[in-house]
Every structure is written in structure tokens, then in C-alpha cells.
Automatic annotation (TrEMBL):
<keyword id="KW-0812">Transmembrane</keyword>
<feature type="transmembrane region" description="Helical">
    <location>
        <begin position="191"/>
        <end position="212"/>
    </location>
</feature>
<keyword id="KW-1133">Transmembrane helix</keyword>
<dbReference type="InterPro" id="IPR001594">
    <property type="entry name" value="Palmitoyltrfase_DHHC"/>
</dbReference>
<feature type="domain" description="Palmitoyltransferase DHHC">
    <location>
        <begin position="146"/>
        <end position="271"/>
    </location>
</feature>
<keyword id="KW-0012">Acyltransferase</keyword>
<keyword id="KW-0808">Transferase</keyword>
<feature type="transmembrane region" description="Helical">
    <location>
        <begin position="70"/>
        <end position="90"/>
    </location>
</feature>
<feature type="transmembrane region" description="Helical">
    <location>
        <begin position="35"/>
        <end position="58"/>
    </location>
</feature>
<comment type="similarity">
    <text>Belongs to the DHHC palmitoyltransferase family.</text>
</comment>
<protein>
    <recommendedName>
        <fullName>S-acyltransferase</fullName>
        <ecNumber>2.3.1.225</ecNumber>
    </recommendedName>
</protein>
<keyword id="KW-0472">Membrane</keyword>
<dbReference type="Pfam" id="PF01529">
    <property type="entry name" value="DHHC"/>
</dbReference>
<feature type="transmembrane region" description="Helical">
    <location>
        <begin position="233"/>
        <end position="259"/>
    </location>
</feature>
<dbReference type="InterPro" id="IPR039859">
    <property type="entry name" value="PFA4/ZDH16/20/ERF2-like"/>
</dbReference>
Amino acid sequence: MAPDDGPTKTKRLYQVWKGSNRFFFGGRLIFGPDVASLFLSTFLIAGPAIAFCIRMYIKIKHENTNVGRGYSMLTLGALLSALDLGFLFFTSGRDPGILPRNSTPPDSDEAFEETTPSMEWVNGRTPHLKLPRTKDVMVNGHTVKVKYCDTCLLYRPPRASHCSICNNCVLRFDHHCPWVGQCIGVRNYRFFFMFISTSTILCLYVFVCSWINVLEKETDNERNIWKALSHDILSVILIVYCFIAVWFVGGLTVFHFYLICSNQTTYENFRYRYDKKENPYNKGTAGNLGEMFFSKIPPSLNNFRSFVEESEHIVMGTMTPNCVEGQISSKEKIDIEMGNRLAEDTGYSLPEILRNLDYDDLEDEMMINKEGERLQLFKMEMEMEDLWKATLQEMKLIRQKTQNVASLIESSNINWSAASADKLGKSKYICLFGCPKHLMVVGSCKCCV
């Protein structure tokens, strides 16, 4: 699609942004495409928290209890709930570290004298882009490969990755969290960890306080725990709910605390990148904790409220590194617009499971399979060549033996007649031991008749 020849329209960046994000309040808040899940997460937190506060208020007003302690428990529960919801919205509603897209591919002025397998593959898919698929960069004395993104038309910085759901490259990409409806990256990972850790603390707090309420009921009912439970159904529900929820949020908190201490991301940990090699980002436990909790959060690289010319972003969003429409690969169709363009052209939407696939790993596997097929084909060609050489050698030996036999027959002046052939029970047109004139030709030889 080419830009219109007429006057270009000026719009804000968030209005022409080609990612799958949802913007609110004039581009001040940015969410993922699955922002609706944020309402479910809010309900799962606020519902039990409100129920707990109501239970504590009833206990203060209508039950014989310590008013000061009751208000303290109520206030602390409300404060933890407010913090938890605040961290949830801080995580979900801010830019996670989205990389600005390029309107054109990087300059390819560098001369690549050596043809690498990755470069051949890129040229095969996009002949006019003379760019290698990967490049090596140095990070703290270690060589790290960075990949080229066909959608954003840039080389991703180290630890950055393209989110298949939001359709953006994100700095220090950790994962896309469906519970907050947003990518987790360099600019919101701290708030995400505070959200899950506060959720764990809130679950434990409500769990313990609800048991205290039940045990106090037990005292009023002559130490009968079953009567106490039957008289405080709301506390029982909160106990069961918090017991189940704490395993999820508590497990996440422990796992991400381990990742912080070892300076890994979820994406890196799931791919086992540092099992057999040293982590170039690891600064030790204390250094990693300091970097995560006390370092300055980098500013956003995008000003979504800035004014841009719409035509520039039309080119940027629709530019496909392809020469022939019929030769476009399925990977390009998926990675360029994450299935949207394919859905518009064919009327079929791309399944969710395909949009969530990690196509970087798929590309690597396809390259490995292709190299394996090439190696197998090369081995078969070598075997055929050896077989052909052996066949030629055998034919040469047979020819040499034939010449030797012919010379022997010619020197002995043997002349086979039809009568001698008939005595042997053979046709008169068959040279049984060979004709000296035709050198072992077996068939219709009339010279011996």
C-alpha cells in the first residue's frame, strides 16, 4: 500500500500505532490487546478484600472484641488491598519498554564478503534486503547474538524480544502476562514483582486473620471448632479461597525472586540459555537485587501523544520485505502483522495458538532441518559418485579380460563352425565361446556359420 498523493494528515502517534495495544485517555495509558482480563484480576483481588473488610467491620460493631485491634486489622487489610490493586494498574497501564519501529530497514552499506547460512536464508526470503539474520555484539566481555525483526525492521537489542500478542519488540522482555493484560519488560517488571509479592502477603494476611476470627468464635462456642465454622461461613470461604490462591501467587513470587537474584528473565530461563554458559548480565545476588529495586527506571522510548504524519506510519506498518506476492512465506504473513493481514485477505482469522508461537525458535529449527536435509543429500550424492566410480572400474576390468580372451582365441586359430555348434546342442547362429572377429559378442553372429 503506497501513501496517498494528497496532503498528509497529522495524528498522534498512538492513533496510527501498528501494534496491538489499546490506548486510553489520549494515549496516556497503554494496555495490551487482552486488557479485558484486567477486570477479572481486579475482581479476584477486590472481591475477597472487600468481603474481609466487611467481616472485620461486623466483628468490631456487633461482636465482643478489642476495638483497637479490630480497626488495626481492618486498616492493614484495606491498605494491602489498595497497594495490590495499585501495583496491578501500574504494571498493566504503562509502556513496558516498547522499541520504536523503523519506517525503513537498516542501511546495508556494510560489505559482507563472506556468505553465511543466515545471510543466504534472508536473501532467499527477501532478496532486496541484503542483511544477515543475526549479528554478534559484545556484552560485558561475552558474545551475544541479536536477531533482526522483520516486523519492526530493526536489530533487537540484547534481551529484547518480539511479543506475538502485543506485536511489539520489548526491551528486556520477560513474558506476556494474561492476568495483567500487558507485556512484562524493563519498565514494569519491578511493579509486576511488587504486585505478585503483595498478593501473596495479602492472601497470607487474610488467611491468618480469618482463622483468628474462627478461633475466637470457637471460644464463644465452648471450644467446638465445627460450631465455630458453621457460625462464620464468610471466614471459612476466605480461608479456602486464600489457601488456593496463595499457591499460585506464592509460587510466582518465589520463582521471580530466584530470577531476580540470578538476573534472568522468564524467557531466558525457559529456554535454558545459561545452563551451559555464563550469564553475562549476572552481577551477583546483591548487585542483581540493587539493579532491580534501586536503579532508575529508563524513560519510555515512545511519545505516544506526539504528532506524526499518518502517511509515514502507513508505509511503516504496511511495508513487507518481499518482492513477489506469490512467494511470500507463511512466517512473513504471521510475523508482519501477526495474522491480521492474512485474515483480511482470506476472511479467516489466525488461530490463537499460532499467534502465541515463538517464531524465532521455529526459524532456528527450520534452519537446522534444512541444513540436515542438505547434508543428507550431499552424502547421497557422494555415495552415488563412489558407486559410479566402482562400476566404471569393474567395466574397465571386464573389457580388459575380454580383450585378453579374444587375443588368446585369435592366436590359437580356433574356427568354430555350425557343425561344432550343433554338436554342442546350440543354435548355428550362436557363438558359444565367442567370435574372434566380434570379440565375445553373444547373439546372432553369421560369420561363424
